[in-house]
Structure formats: structure tokens, C-alpha cells
Amino acid sequence: MTTDQGAQGRQEQEVLRRIERARGRPARLRDERITLAHGAGGKATHTLIEAVFLAAFHNPVLERLEDQAVCEAGGVRLAFTTDAYVVSPLFFPGGDIGDLAVNGTVNDLAMSGARPLYLSAGFILEEGFPVADLTRIAASMAQAATAAGVQIVTGDTKVVERGKADGCYVTTAGVGVVEHPFELGAAQARPGDVVLVSGPIGDHGTTVLVARGELGIESDLESDTAPLAGAVAALLGACGKDVRCLRDATRGGVATVLNEIARASGVAVVLDEDAVPVRPQVRGAAEILGLDPLYIACEGRMVAVVDAARSQEALEALRAHPLGRDAALVGRVVADPAPLVLCRTAFGGTRIVDVLVGDPLPRIC
């Protein structure tokens, strides 16, 4: 190595150390007003959660900051989650706010390895909203619940004055039973593990954006909204405790999920850009908008961190399931430079993949 190369390497390491120190500081909410970025699932969302909600509701279960809480009651391990859906438009190719609400809730439960059982559904309706549209949404939810093997067993309805909402918002809660004895979570990743995705990324966010009709883009792309509990069961059945972590890549996309895992586990993740499956329509729309597909939301894709020794079995299990037939190994977990996510580009370079900043695609779920 030449003197110049050595100096450049030391400079790069110093930059990484500064980034690590900055990201390790306690969250401080500097904003005086809520912005759209606070709902995007990225850096602003994390700051809001940690500085406001975690500070107010502090407890060991919430501290894990998973997509669901795993609690014990009467000797039974239960997974519990809650969510809200404000997608615009309400109906889009491949789905609508109804099946999105069911699948999103089921998937949050499934990422703990739970078997989803029951959901609640709350509706906030604007005066003047068409009953025909509400009937269509309810039918879609019923169909999605049947497909996911869950029942909607309770709910609530509120109506607000015309102009005080945007047609229809849906809130949900879900409960499932955790039947395996091991722990899944963002803090379980270890150096040497591999990172898998269950299929092409970015379909949902791109579909919703195109469906708004603001870009003048025509596409046959459809949302990937789907229930992942079956694919999770197949993966756990094949690899058991060698599955470390599961996350559905919704708001903030794969990039934000991997940053959460790196931070919680104190590891680094190195992605191979060429290995990440992205449909041409998604890549094309992302290029037009100046977006990175790694940050675009999915609603039927999961990220799995698995012991490297079981990677082939994990891929085979996912690919044997209809929702995982295009599963791919996209990266590896390493020790340093923690807690960063790096991406090896198609041009042979390496870039940092940080947590999402701002909200390039508001109201996609």
C-alpha cells in the first residue's frame, strides 16, 4: 500500500467513526411541529418515537422497538401489534386500503414468528364518503382476512365533518400466538450471518405513486400487498433458531430495516447492489424521481437475517413458497464498521446506506 493509499484509508475510517459517534447520540426532537417526515419510517420517525413516545411510555417490552410486542399471559407467548392506514389513493392496482390494513397487521405479527389469529378494525370516515366504497373496502378486508387465516372480531366507527379527513382511514390491532421457543428480533443479528429478501423490492410504493397520476407514467406494476405468515412458517420450519431476525420492509424500505438491525445488534451490514432484486418498472420510476429503490416501501416482502450455514436451506424454503419464489441473498452481517449499512455498487465502489431522511413518498400505507 502506498503512503497516499494509507492516508486515504485512515481518512475514510475517521469519517466512519464520526458518523458512528453522531448516530449514537440520544435522540432529541428539535422540531416544533409535526411534518410528513415524522410518518415516513425514517430518521424523523425514529427520533419522534424515542424522544416522545418511548420517553413517555418507557417499559422493557416497548424498548425493543419491534413491529410488535411479544408478551406472556397465562404461560402463553402472545404477539400484539397495532397500526393505522392513510394510503392515498384508497384503491390502487393490486389492492386497496382494506387488504393493505389486514396484510400489514398480519405481517407485523408474523415477523415475530407468531401465528396470527385475530384482528380489530377501526374506521374513521368523512361525512359524504360513498357507502359503495366503504362496502368495497370491507369486502376486500374480509377476503384478505380469509386468505391470511385470521378473523376480524371487533372494531369501531367514527365519522367526522366534511373536510376534516380524507375519505377513509383504517386502524387495526392484531394478536397472534408465538409457538416457537426462540427469540427473533433486530438485536439478534451476528457477524457472519447473511441477509435475504423474499422477492423484488419497491413494488408497493412505486405502484401507489404511479396510481396518483401526478407523474404521467403508465405501468402494469401492481402492489405486492400479501400476508407473509405462510412464508415465515416455511422459513422457520426449515431453519428454526438459525433465523435471527425478520422484518417486513414497509415505510423506509429495505434500507431503513437494515439500519434498524445494524443499530440494535451493534453490527454492520454489507449489501451487494447487483444481488438486490428490483423490477425494471420500479428501477425506471426511481430513476425518474431520483429515488433509491432500497428506500421504497414493500407490503409483501420481508428481510430475513439467517445463520450463513443455513443460507441455502433458507433460500430453498422461501423459494418453495409462492410469495418467496424470487428470494435472494443480498448481503452479509459483519462486525465493522458498526452500526452502518454499506452497499457495494455495480461500479465496484462502496457507499453508505443511511436511514431515510425526509418523506419522498408520503401516504403509501
From TrEMBL:
<comment type="similarity">
    <text>Belongs to the HypE family.</text>
</comment>
<feature type="domain" description="PurM-like N-terminal">
    <location>
        <begin position="66"/>
        <end position="178"/>
    </location>
</feature>
<dbReference type="Pfam" id="PF02769">
    <property type="entry name" value="AIRS_C"/>
</dbReference>
<feature type="domain" description="PurM-like C-terminal">
    <location>
        <begin position="190"/>
        <end position="337"/>
    </location>
</feature>
<dbReference type="InterPro" id="IPR036921">
    <property type="entry name" value="PurM-like_N_sf"/>
</dbReference>
<protein>
    <submittedName>
        <fullName>Hydrogenase expression/formation protein HypE</fullName>
    </submittedName>
</protein>
<dbReference type="InterPro" id="IPR016188">
    <property type="entry name" value="PurM-like_N"/>
</dbReference>
<dbReference type="InterPro" id="IPR010918">
    <property type="entry name" value="PurM-like_C_dom"/>
</dbReference>
<dbReference type="Pfam" id="PF00586">
    <property type="entry name" value="AIRS"/>
</dbReference>
<dbReference type="InterPro" id="IPR011854">
    <property type="entry name" value="HypE"/>
</dbReference>
<dbReference type="InterPro" id="IPR036676">
    <property type="entry name" value="PurM-like_C_sf"/>
</dbReference>
